[in-house]
User: Fold this.
Amino acid sequence: MAPVLSKGLLRADGRAEILATLADVALSELAAAAVAVVEVLLAGDARVVEARNLPDTVASWRAEVDVIDAELGERLLAGCPNRFTEVRTLPMMSGGDLFGALVLFYDAPVTLGEEAETLVDVAAIALGKAAQHAELSRSYAELRASRDVLARTEKLRALGEMAAGISHDLKNILNPLSLHLQLLDRILKRGLPGADEAIAEMKQVLHRGVETLDRLREFSRQTPERRLERVHLDELTHEALELSRPRIASTYRARGVRLVEELGRPPPVNVRPAELVTALLNIISNAIDALAEGGTVTVCTGSSDGGAWVQIHDDGPGIPEEHTTKGAKEGTGLGLAMVYAFVQRHGGKLTLDTEVGRGTTFTMWFPSAPPEQAVQ
Assistant:
């Protein structure tokens, strides 16, 4: 019996295979003339799921039962008139769960040995394991479905946040475009020089705006991000400052707001240029807005700790402590949160130094780009 069991029931995979194997093993090893395997259903019914050498009326039997005992075998025997003289019913139980019964039919009186009970016990254990496996599979499928839904929800949430952030960035980028258009209109109407410079600035603004929109499109499609570029902070910082000047000229000059540029020729860094310019515009715009009574925004660059930094300082009223307890990571608004995320993605650091009445300083630090390899 043991070799048969090890190759049959214990290797069976799934409830249906276990029950079929049980019927075959019982017929061949227990010298039965016929075999019926009865399964107990959740609704309280019982049905024959496997039959060997039994008429169709028994093989398709199904009925409501109160208990699984000798009476079950007698009910099945009644469906086989004048064919068998003996019937034995062996319930299949494991861990307190009743899975059904093995019903054996004989042509003559028989005494069952321990091997019959062993066979039923092994079958019940196998059915218990199969039930556990099925439950785990269902749980895993539900978990995977929930995870997929969560992932889609998270993507939509992140996409919404990014869209809001890029909308904020585009406002900062495109506002100077409107101001340059007004400037160009005055230049053309008055026949003054400077139209070429204004047009060049407008083209650069549009270029950065398109790059920003590309970031949103790439994220929504989950396409790989563009490779980092080796850039000089001085060049991109100067570009961000030039984009900010028309805003001051048209709106803030009356307040006495000034932009000061101090470039320190730091080493190159690896970043995505459009993201750095929009990050600088975010901070510079916030600094300008903070100078309600006028003042100076100083933007400078330099190097330290194996990297390069760009610093934006305003001599405005500073940020109250209750707005800085979350730190630069949370920022004081959506724009600064996006700036923090940008700096983190590029392996840098964003620090905030502020004090009420003494202004605010933001510093973005990035590791230096590795030396360029010489072309062989």
